[in-house]
Predict the 3D structure of the following.
Amino acid sequence: MKIQLLNTTARHPAASAHTPPALRSIALALAPGEQVAVIGPSGAGKTTLLHLLGCALRPSAGQVLLDGSDPWMQPRAALQRLRRSLFIAPQLPPLPPRQRVVTAVLAGQLPAMGLWRSLRSLLYPVDIPAAESALAQFDLADKLFERVDRLSGGERQRVGLARALVADARLWLVDEPLSALDPARAQQAMRTLTQAAQARGATLVTSLHHVDMALAHFPRILGLRDGAVVFDLPTAQVTPERLHSLYAQHLDELHDPVHVSEPLGGAAPVVMHCR
């Protein structure tokens, strides 16, 4: 999916009229199938940007264009159809605790289903092999019929990511997918997401606190700070100096890098010494 933000400003839905906007005059263009990591200190506007791209938040100024059309200028039915082609993975996936894992994963297919098939799938999963295959890519196939409330936090997060692999979506928006994962699982999750998106030609935008993961797995890095774009660069041009500037006064948020055995493009990852 092609994305354009034209001098777009967005305010948090709960913000008052006197609160500064969460995003200010953002200009951005993504080609279909492109993969971008969004980094920046807490409060930079990363999650707001994903909500804006996912048509969950209407801009207060400027435009968001998806495949050349402004979703907010379309009839409600057309907007609903567009949303079915978008997949949003929040940092904490809303998984009902008594729900089976297979049902939670197949919820990724619900936007493309009709009403009756959706209801039937909630009671009797209609595509168990697809759910099992998606879970297997996150080493969770053995949890297929477990209840969600019996999973660890990291397992729940990976179940939420497995939904992307069964969804019929052209734009994947993934918010902080590694917060509950150990380094090995984090590497696996990033490889799975980026490879699956590439295989399907889906556009992937991921917000990450783990800067080393962003540099290792994404060809393009968008640096946000205080609601503005500080840099938008190929990974090879994201230097330690740029990162220090982006995280100035927030250097504690730059994690120590984990070992990366196969960095993107064979280049060595950027190593930060901030402590």
Q: What stands out?
A: Residues 91-168 form one domain. The chain has a mean pLDDT of 87.
